[in-house]
Amino acid sequence: MPQKNKDPHTFHIPVMGLAFTIDSPIKIAKYGISSVISIVDDILIEKMNEFYTKKFKLPFNSISNKIEDYRAKRITSYLNTVDTIVKQKFEELKTSFVEKSSEFEKYLDLLPDFSKVKKDFVTYFETNDFKSNISKWIQNNLTPGSIDVNIMTKLDKLNYSKGKKLPTEFNDAHAALRGFANSNLHSSVVLSAGMNPRLYSYFENFQDFFPTKENSLNKKIILKVSDYRSAIIQGKFLAKKGLWVSEYRIESGLNCGGHAFASDGYLMGPILEEFKTNKDSLIAEVHSILVTALKNKGKHFPEIPLELNITVQGGVGTSEEHEFLLNNYNIDSVGWGSPFLLVPEATTVDSPTIKKLEKATEKDLYLSDISPLGVPFNSLKGNTNELIRDHKIANNKAGSSCPKKFLSSNTDYSEKAICTASRKYQTIKLNELKSKNLNSEEHTTNEQGITVKSCLCEGLANAALINNNIQQKGENNGVAVCPGPNMAYFSKEISLKEMIDHIYGKVNVIATNNRPHMFIKELSLYIDYFSNKVNEAKDSFTIKQEKYLTNFQNNLNDGITYYQNLFSNFDSNKATLLLELNVLKKDLFNIRIPILVKA
Question: Domain range spanning residue 548?
């Protein structure tokens, strides 16, 4: 398996929830593993900053929410703390070779056998007798994992001070970006959940995102995208501002964790093929726009294009799939998310939730309506957040007190946005519902549509507080966990070494023989999704819906044709995969799109 970039590993750990990867770099960056911190929740970030500064005996200055720009300052402070701790741990690891510590050995042991660093070290060790020479080689050749951050672009709520609306730069996502931009990190910000032109324009305020005279970037931009069209539109938009996208991170629309931004039936395989085919033209086209923009700004411009990586995540679960993505599509890194929820050495998940994840089957993992954003959200049945929500509903106390308000987006009842999971919003909606005098069945359906929304601000953050014995204030909202469907095939707590050995094909931690190929699984998820969309449209069918559903079905059929050609060239499991495709194709066309009767 070739190693295409300078990173020690060919996988990364994507952002998960608010808490699950909040301190992952502290745990695993020293081993060369890159991971992503969510910088949505500055309240959690402030608590984690206090916790880790105390643990590592670093100075801590509490940042009150009464001071100006507290959100950005909290984020900057925590990221600097993480950076300091990672550098300290990494330096200790490098010097541990002389002390014959296990940490240096663990770094090498976790690397894949094809790793250039691993091979070079063995060669250098065999030809050098002096520890000082080897120590110098280690200093020059070992690298830590990247401390990347994630901003969900939709979470850009307006903010107020003393009843007055603050300027745009104090919006949630803007402040988060400023927090990262002002930090000491030399890493990347991952932008997810679609394009936010106002936020993208705000990047121009920070010099670190522009190329240096050495043609490098102090801080990089990663776009999480669902297809090639989205990538090139956003890439060009940023290039016109003199900003280069260093990585396009392709994520499956449905075979993923967290919020599921379903495509219009475009499947992972054909999407990856399009990126592979068009990568050179994408680079050339965007580079040309970038150079023009930088010249117009009077800034330094690179004569040749800057580095561009294509990565992928969503549903990968075996070393064979990992290798195939790297080799067949020239992918630079593969994201492994949900399985790492069972690896306490890498992520932060409370013990009761880990136990529920261990037992989770395909039926326990479902696409829910619980997100206040109105976007389908991957959930685990019976999580404590869900149980507490249902208890409140049963006691006529539906909704959360909404202490954090990060997901507030509804302005139907006030200028200030409120959250659809809040008690305030749900009380208004339930009172409105009572006045409609609907029949029992309709009333129940509408009531469930209101109260299903859950407090994710608390639910996705609480695991870090529970694990670290940090005091929780206010009412308990439990822990919400958001694994992808792939979680069903991982059924035990796993050590970091076991998980990485699984990724690189040294061991197999999946007990079942019935796990479908990631492409087959995604296709089946899309067919189920399509079926639900057809059923939803039956009672009020329009020309627009007919066009959308027909296009969706055609795109899925095109994807099946692509996979038939792809799987026909496989050496192993070909017959099974082709049979599964034929079954799914029949399922697809057994779903009848309503015929619009024209007057």
Answer: 516-599
